[in-house]
Amino acid sequence: MSAYILRRLVLLVPVMFGVSVVVFLVMHLAPGDPAVVMLGPTASEEDVQRIRTDLGLDQPLPVQYGKWVWNVVQGDFGRSITMKRPVLPEILTRFKATLILTFASLVISTIIGVAAGVIAAVKPYSWFDRASMLFALLGVSMPVFWLGIVLIVIFALKLGWLPAGGMYSAGSTRNAGDLLQHLVLPAVTLAAASVALVARLTRSSMLEVIRQDYIRTARAKGLRERTAILRHALKNALIPIVTVIGLQVGYLLGGAILTETVFSWPGLGLLMVQAILARDFPIVQGGVLLIGATFVLVNLIVDLCYVYLDPRIHYS
Fold it and tell me: Which residues contact 35 (CB under 8 A, 6 or more apart)?
């Protein structure tokens, strides 16, 4: 097992190298010049060129990339062009807020999605099955930003039950209760599509397992229906479900960009949107690398969960 984990960690290097190349090229080849953004459209050519020289943007792209990668390997992600602060502490601080939002959304999507899928599979073609699959279809179809705006209008503006945005109330003591109030709407918005996907996959996987001979045998021997479903059927149906849940972490981290923008959630996604508009290369590059590394590590954890779920699986 340790050898397998070591190999996967070693494979992280080429994956992150590929991610770094793609994000570097996309940011540097996209239209827009950070120097012009900083100085404004009325700046003289001499001032723009001076800023480009100070930022190292006048050098060839391979040289810029080589210097950036060498600094990243040493733990230096550079300095933000707009904020004039080191990139790594800034993105780590914002990433904590993104992780809170992502984890809350993942918990919602897992609990509701798996529960709805199991009930729909146990009672196929019932009213609950049809209703849950209808809501699943709606959840997949609705854009994140549209759903977020709808929830803000209903629960924040019309009913006044929940705050419309931010992570804490202005002037509050920043306690857990205040955080939970601000977390509800963005977490539900971000989790909607994941709930739908997990519910549909759980239903499909459970229907396949429930029809197996060993489940019928367990029932014939007098095993309680709840025990047969939860202890035997669900555990054997979990491998594809866990796989999709692991993949959903990447979707949630990516979807957090739109969600954080709609709800003004002070996470990494909102920071990266602001950095893209300002052409702040170091912030965007560092943020994408951090999200990519997190996604790869989550996939490794998912693979290790297979061993627990199915004793027949072994890694060497």
Answer: 43, 48, 49, 51, 52, 55, 57
Domain-located, residue 68: yes
Q: Please, which pLDDT band fits residue 314 given cuts at 50, 70 and 90? A: low
Residue 86 belongs to some domain of the structure: no
Considering only the C-alpha atoms of the chain, give the largest distance between any 2 of them, rounded to a whole number of Å: 86
Name residue, tokens 């404004």: 40
Between vectors from CA 196 to CA 190 and to CA 200, what angle results, nearest 5°?
Answer: 155
User: Phi and psi (nearest 5°) for 79?
Assistant: -120, 140
| Total Cβ atoms within 10 A of residue 68 | 20
Q: Is 73 exposed, middle or buried (0-12, 13-18, 19+ CB in 10 A)?
A: exposed
- What is the sign of the dihedral through the CA atoms of 205, 142, 109 and 247? positive
Based on the fold, state whether residues 157 and 44 are members of the same structural domain.
no
Would you say residue 67 has pLDDT above 70?
yes
Same domain (yes/no): 58, 102: no
Q: What is the pLDDT of residues 135-154, one digit of tens each?
A: 877 777 788 888 888 989 99
Q: What is the rounded CA–CA span in Å between residue 17 and residue 22? A: 9
Decide if pLDDT at 158 tops 80.
yes
Residue 27's pLDDT is: 77
Distance CA 100, CA 252 (A): 11
Domain span at residue 98 reads 94-309
Alpha-carbon separation of residue 240 from 197, 244, 305, 310 (angstroms): 12, 6, 11, 12
List beta partners, residue 79: 86
Residues contacting residue 260 through CB under 8 Å, at least 6 positions apart: 98, 101, 186, 266, 267, 268, 269, 270, 273
Is 133 or 182 the better-scoring residue by pLDDT? 182
The model's pTM: 0.82
Gap between the Cα atoms of 75 and 156, Å rounded: 42
Exposed/middle/buried for residue 10 (C-beta within 10 Å: 0-12, 13-18, 19+): exposed
